Amino acid sequence: MAAASTPVAHDQSSDPTRTGAFDLSRPPVIEGFTPPPRSKEEGFNDKFIRKTKENPFVLIGCFGTACALTYGLIAFRRGKTRQSQMMMRARIFAQGFTVFALLFGVASTALKPKQ
């Protein structure tokens, strides 16, 4: 019996575009797109301060929501049901204000001209 020989294909592992493998150590190459250079990495505190300066009403709304909720729960625990109900209504108002501030911030960012 003669051994059947199979044709040997060229090794294409060096060309990731043909094999479909991804190199996760490098960003993907997209034709016609060059990402802007990063000047520095932005930490949590820097990003928080920047976002607060861009839209301070979100922080005000979040703070108002937390205060109304806390005060309402304290009033509920003390048995002041009327005051507790008023604070829960104030919390809903503050949450609505926060959502409106978020939507306003998104819209203003979307309509801002690109630099």
UniProtKB/TrEMBL annotation:
UniProt cross-references to Pfam families, sorted A to Z: HIG_1_N
HIG1 domain boundaries: 29-115
Gene Ontology CC terms: mitochondrial membrane
Any single GO BP term: mitochondrial respirasome assembly
TM ranges: 57-76, 88-111
Presence of the UniProt keyword Methyltransferase in the record: no
Renumbered residue ranges of the record's region Disordered: 1-44
Keyword vocabulary terms for this entry: Membrane, Transmembrane, Transmembrane helix
Subcellular location per the Swiss-Prot or TrEMBL entry: Mitochondrion membrane
The protein's name in its UniProt record: HIG1 domain family member 2A-like
Gene giving rise to this polypeptide: Higd2a
